[in-house]
Design goal:
- This is KRR1 small subunit processome component.
- Residues 1-28, 241-285, 298-385 are annotated as: Disordered.
- One of its GO terms (cellular component) is small-subunit processome.
- The chain has 385 residues and is mainly alpha-helical.
- Helix content is 51%, strand content 9%.
- It has a 3-stranded antiparallel beta sheet with strand order 1-3-2, with helices on one face. Strands 4-6-5 form a 3-stranded antiparallel beta sheet, with helices on both faces.
- Helix 6 (161-170) runs parallel beside helix 8 (206-220).
Length: 385
């Protein structure tokens, strides 16, 4: 008995009742053959099956408008539906015309998707045999509301680019609405989308999974790699974010290093076996100054004089601060008549000098021009002779 118990692997308490799913592996292809009315050998169902789901208040107007289209789509499969606006619910049930036993579950999924904000023309596709749906609940995965909103937005991406990439790579329709993510598509792809969404809410960016899916798609095109393992081609991403315990350990390590650095900086004192000299007490200081032998009245008078002196200093300082506000700013005196005349004369003299310099320059340039002209005339005369 003890040997058998020791050989059994220890299972986590939370996962004790979970069993293996041999029908849900990657090598199984979920191909479903179409179910026609002639395939139903038993005839009409003996019992009526029905499902109902609630919808939010803001969906009421839209559902009322498109309900005829919903009724028409379900009637083709022999399923009846009712819209209860009083209780805010949608119900589907089998009828005598229903021939497919699984269609009621498909109709239930269709109603659920419409309640979660999926359009009717998209929700009707769930009635096809090769399409399934998955509604992923993300509301309880993150406690902090701000963090939850940021991570939910990360699934959508800037201008919906991340969501579009997921849809293109998985051939699924994905809708992020409130605290749920509605997914429609093939069975295999639903598992991929669920993995991406849950990892995103655990702070693993969707771009890593998208990159992996792109590589897998390219590898699937090569028939030589069909029997080989693809692990060597797939990127291995390391977790960079630390747990709280790891963060505290790192912080404590840094603090310890700082303390050691401070200790090294401090100079080591020379050890002496003798204790330090005793500090003088208050009475010793009073004995030195002679205050100890004064009477109580003399001591009080001395304290009063000190206090008044301190008060006088403070009042003097405050008065000086207040007086600063009344000090007139330094003004520049207007120039007298004599000063104005002197300035005028200086300006006149400066202008005269400038004019003289200009005339001298003009004379010099005119003389140069005359010389050049004479030289040219001489050259022409010599050339003509």
């Amino acid at each position: 008995m003890t040997e058998s118990s020791s050989t059994q692997p220890q299972v986590n308490k939370n996962k004790a009742h979970r069993k293996d799913k041999p029908w849900d592996t990657d090598d199984i292809d979920h191909v479903v053959d179409a179910f026609n009315p002639e395939d139903n050998k038993g005839g009409a169902f003996t019992e009526e099956s029905s499902f109902a789901t609630l919808f939010p208040k803001y969906r009421e107007k839209y559902l009322r408008e498109v309900w005829p289209a919903v009724t028409k789509a379900l009637e083709a499969h022999g399923v009846a539906c009712t819209l209860d606006l009083v209780h805010g619910s949608m119900a589907v049930r089998t009828t005598r015309k229903t021939y497919d036993p699984y269609i009621i579950l498909k109709a239930r999924d269709m109603v659920k998707l419409m309640a979660r904000g999926v359009a009717v023309n998209q929700a009707v596709k769930i009635l096809n045999d090769d399409i399934a749906c998955d509604i992923i609940k993300i509301g309880s995965l993150v406690r902090n509301k701000e963090r939850y909103v940021k991570r939910r937005q990360r699934i959508i991406g800037p201008d919906g680019s991340t969501l579009k990439a997921i849809e293109l790579l998985t051939d699924c329709y994905v809708l992020v609405q409130g605290s749920t993510v509605s997914v429609m598509g093939p069975y295999k792809s639903l598992k991929e989308v669920r993995r991406i969404v849950l990892d995103c809410m655990k702070n693993i960016h969707p771009i890593y999974r998208i990159k992996e899916l792109m590589i897998r798609r390219e590898l699937a095109k090569d028939p030589k790699l069909a029997t080989e393992s693809w692990d060597r081609f797939l990127p291995q991403f390391r977790k960079r974010h630390l747990k709280t315990s790891e963060k505290t350990a790192k912080k404590n390590e840094k603090l310890g290093q700082k303390r050691e650095a401070r200790k090294e900086k401090k100079k080591k004192k020379v050890y002496t076996p003798f204790p330090p000299a005793q500090q003088p007490s208050k009475i010793d200081l009073q004995l030195e100054s002679g205050e100890y032998f004064l009477k109580a009245s003399e001591k009080a008078a001395k304290e009063e004089a000190k206090r008044k002196q301190k008060q006088a200093e403070v009042t003097k300082q405050r008065q000086a601060e207040r007086a600063e506000a009344f000090v007139a700013p330094a003004e520049t005196a207007a120039p007298t008549v004599e000063e104005k005349q002197k300035q005028k004369r200086k300006r006149g003299a400066a202008e005269m000098e400038v004019e003289m310099d200009g005339e001298e320059k003009d004379d010099a340039t005119s003389e140069k021009k005359k010389r050049k002209k004479e030289k040219k005339e001489k050259k022409t005369a010599l050339a003509s002779s």
